[in-house]
Amino acid sequence: MGEKTVAITTLGCKVNQYESAALAQSFKEKGYRIVDFKDPADIYIVNTCTVTHLGDRKSRQLIRRAARANSAALIVVTGCYAQIAPDEVGRIPGVDLVVGTRGRSRLVELVEAAAKEREPLCLVSGFQAGEQFEEIAALPLEGRTRAFLKIQEGCTNFCTYCIVPHTRGPLRSRRPENVLKAAREIVAAGYREIVLTGIRTGAYGQDLDRDLSLAALLRDLSEIPGLLRIRLSSIEPNDITPELVEVLAGLKNFCRHLHVPLQSGDDEILQRMGRRYTTWEYARLAEVLRDNLPGLGLTTDVIAGFPGESERNFENTVRFIERISFSGLHVFKFSPRRGTPAAGFADQIKPGIKEQRSRRLIESGKKLAARFAGSLVGQELDVLVEQRAGERGSLYEGLTGNYVRVLFPGREELLGEVVRVKMVETEGTALKGFLCE
Fold first, then answer.
1. Which CATH number fits the domain 127-255, given the four candidates 3.40.50.2000, 2.120.10.80, 3.30.750.210, 3.40.190.10?
2. 184-227-256-197 Cα dihedral, nearest 10 degrees
3. Rounded Cα–Cα distance for residues 51 and 209 (Å)
4. How far apart are CA 308 and CA 313, in angstroms?
5. What is the value of pTM for the model shown?
6. pLDDT tens-digit series, residues 192-232
């Protein structure tokens, strides 16, 4: 019998992407070969998302696709949709093993047990008080230039629209010594940039010790030799402390980009969302960040069509987004999640109106991103070279520290390196430039 093959597909956030990479490594270490999800495989793993109903639907589609691809394969479903709706997932024809967002450090063992039994298994359970961060060590997948490093799990904010606290449980932080060890391994593997990620990254350390914080962790990470760039994934406004701002301003290898979710630019809607800040407080935070971090790229999330969002509320959001002048927007249409308060709110917005508002916000985001890119023309900026730019001859592409994509003539040996590029013009929301040599 030849080596067993495993195909993994991932829906949703950067945390899911990290966890899928960790699962792939776990199987490789046990002698399995990782193949593309489109290829025939002995084991298919679907790492699901349930943030929106679209995530649920795509998860189901991928599960069914795997079952059709090889009727003899073992179908494993994990992730947030599996955690919140295990019975629903288990009823999908072909599913052999359902594992939620816990116990995945043992997934290889669980898969091998399920393969012997050939009886459907559901191993999803609720969260317990005092749970610890589950270690699933992961070096990045081959061919990447940036490495995600998960440092935190869980959320206790319970925004009225969000299912994540129910799928990810309470706050659990990775021990700092384990974070540093993983970071050193990533740098030793040749990666120049690490992206710190978590469900609520800014709450790092709150469950461990009063002296532990994201700011303290960043100080230690910044001293690792060879780590040229540190980037943060999404961070909640209320988790950005004066200490964190001071530390970020002092780090030479911190990428000057922050993704700080807004969700609405109207105080009435923010209150209904349970967001715990006002537009004045958010605007003040943006001002403080830009004063301390010159050149900062500031991106955000916005929800279109939250229940009760009137035209006035929506126009307030449009004006506020323009006032803050973000460098990019992630726009989501409100999706009622079973078990959240907002799913039962009166005045649900009609799909057509949500679609119209979403499109308008997306267009606004494109204009803001193009404006921010234009503000960088004429500057010389560091770019992490990621890949050849499609079929465009000798052009290569990468990201600036403030998260703008750059196209420039380059060479194969520059892949994975940080180079200096002179920005000469915009191309939509991206920049074009040439190497400073």
1. 3.30.750.210
2. -20
3. 30
4. 9
5. 0.92
6. 999 999 999 999 999 987 789 999 999 999 999 999 999 99
